[in-house]
Amino acid sequence: MSVSRTERLLNLLIALLNTKYGLRRAELRAKVYHDTSGNDVAFGRMFERDKNDLRQFGFDVETVTDLGWSEDDPATTRYRIGKESNRLPDVQLSPGEWTVLLLASQLWERAALGTAAASALRKLQASGTVSDVELPVGVQPRIRPAGQAFDDVVAAMHAQHPVSFPYLAGTTGKEEQRTVEPWGLGSRFGQWYLTGYDRSRKAPRHFRLSRFTGPVTVLEKETYPAPPNFNVRAELDRLPELPLRTAVVDVREGRLLGLRRRATPVPEGSAGTPDAGYERLQVNFRDAEVLAEELASYGPDAVAHAPDELVAAVRHRLRNAAAFCAAPSPAYLFADAPQGRTVRKRTSEDQLKRMLQLVPFLVHNQGLHIQDVAARFGVTPAELESDLRILICSGLPEGYPDDLLDIHWEEGHVYITQDLDLKRPVRFTVDEACALLTGLETLNGLPELAEGGALESVTLKLMAAAGEEGLRAGSLAGPEVGPSDSAVLDVVRGAIQERSQLRLVYFSAQRDQVSVRDVDPLRLYSLDNTWYFEAYCHSAQGLRNFRLDRVQEVHPNGNPASTQVRAGESFPAKLFTPNDDDTTVLVQLTRQGAGLADDYYAERVAPLPDGGLVAEIRFGSTAWLPMFVAQHGGAARIVEPSELGAAALDWIEAALAGYGG
């Protein structure tokens, strides 16, 4: 969508909003489109596309006809946009409700729902002044969706298009192509599930996203009726938990301390004899795919022997990883862009959506500095000024200067005095309503939020404001975000509040060792139900992140925490803190694994024709890169430095040798 089209759509919107009786097609053609070509067919197609675009932005274009006349007659048919039906109702929020809402909007670690949540929050901010709130200590939960498949399924589900994907069936172990009408997407037992109507089986089925073996294809030319009042959380609650089973694994002596904590020795004579240098252990598990991912990451330090399903799953991951590592390197080119968190390329559609939020925001927040406004909308001051220049040239067709949007900025402070009835934000889209309401429902798993009245009250207010779009929030369900062990969390939270130092006995999975550390805890946060805390580590002399489930012992050591150390500036907190001595690595990711670029805070990305990408990522330790490659089973490999890629392939081939090559 070119800049000229952006301006045309904005002017068309203003014209249709500011007419009481409607405008005929001929009037719009002459005054808004300035079309004198005489080609009625081409103009008609353009006008229909523009009406569809406005509907996607949340504005319903009404068709008005005189009594007795048909809509097929362009001479008598008029068009307009109602002033109220398209607008978000006023939502007044208390500081406590703003706090909960901010947490809900920042839940989505990445993916399209993160963008939708930010957009919905800006619409609410555009309807009034934002309260200054301070997020509570120890409550920064986040949800990490399941890669590109998650985004594709959500988009298809909300547009009511069927999807097709290759799927590894759990019952047969065979890969099959499935075509499904998606009804809901939710998290259960630590996995994301798609629930929908399987056209080949002619019945409702559940599909685990981790079993998708290829990209999702959206059948955009087809639609389907969604079941009314469908609630995916209720459906997934009916799923029985997988039975507890026992795996037999050979573990290299003196290695994998974390796995050993969960394992027990195999009784002598009951399961054969391990190779020299290995011990044969028993490990309880419920999901073979989850354990296979872990065992694959251990490479030659662990070899699965039973059950056969687990052995096949580990071998499959290692073979895929080895094949990907051995494939020719792709041609790639990094765009000349500033380094930073990987973001989707901005489009003109994004710009128009932003401008429609910008006008009401400026109306309710007069005089803000242009840098503050740009930061609130996640753009640069230069991008914001580009938006403002388009806005000040937009207005009523053939209008006088008073009929144009009147926006000006003095010494960097932005003011608006003529809004042309754009002073209220447009209603929520389905994505926006689902992102916020699903986030609020997820926060119910945190007692400190659920016990207050703010969470319930803000949910009711948003349900009322979202209307019909809010009713479809039942199609999404996030994971449980409450900590599995609240005792360690309570100790850390108390130390943060009291500014006291802690002594940890901590297991490091990367180093495969246990260490004792004195730390100054700074803040708590989570990804799904895995909780972390950021702290200044006196042993490492820098900021580090610690997983609560790897803390073996913790207690105050009697010393106060330093008053000079501050938490990292980013919010939400990053899992990886960059250091000057990090190694820059180029990682190739498939389309399914492209989300890892965001997970590991890629500084630059180069897109590839197959939907994958090459990402430039900084790693503090390269010793665990073979584990990273093996774990993702053919979704990631090291391109540069080439010696690290070769070392990863050698390590994976050594692991395959334990399974007969």
Verbal overview:
The protein has 661 residues and is an alpha+beta fold. 35% of the residues lie in helices and 23% in strands. The strands form six sheets. Strands 4, 5, 6, 7, 8 and 15 form a six-stranded mixed β-sheet that branches. Strands 19-18-17-16-20 form a five-stranded antiparallel β-sheet. Helix 10 packs antiparallel against helix 21 and helix 12 packs across helix 13 (381-391). The model is unreliable at 337-345 (pLDDT under 50).
The main β sheet shows up as: 6 strands, mixed
Our Rg estimate from Cα atoms comes to 28 Å
Strand content: 15-25%
What is the strand tally?
24
Helix content: 25-40%
| SSE-based structural type | alpha+beta
**Span of the ends, CA to CA:** 52 Å
Structural shape: globular
Arithmetic mean pLDDT: 84
Q: Uncertain runs with pLDDT below 50, 5 residues or more?
A: 337-345
What is the overall number of helices? 21
Short description:
With 661 residues, this protein is of the alpha+beta class. It has 21 helices and 24 strands. The protein is globular and about 90 Å long.
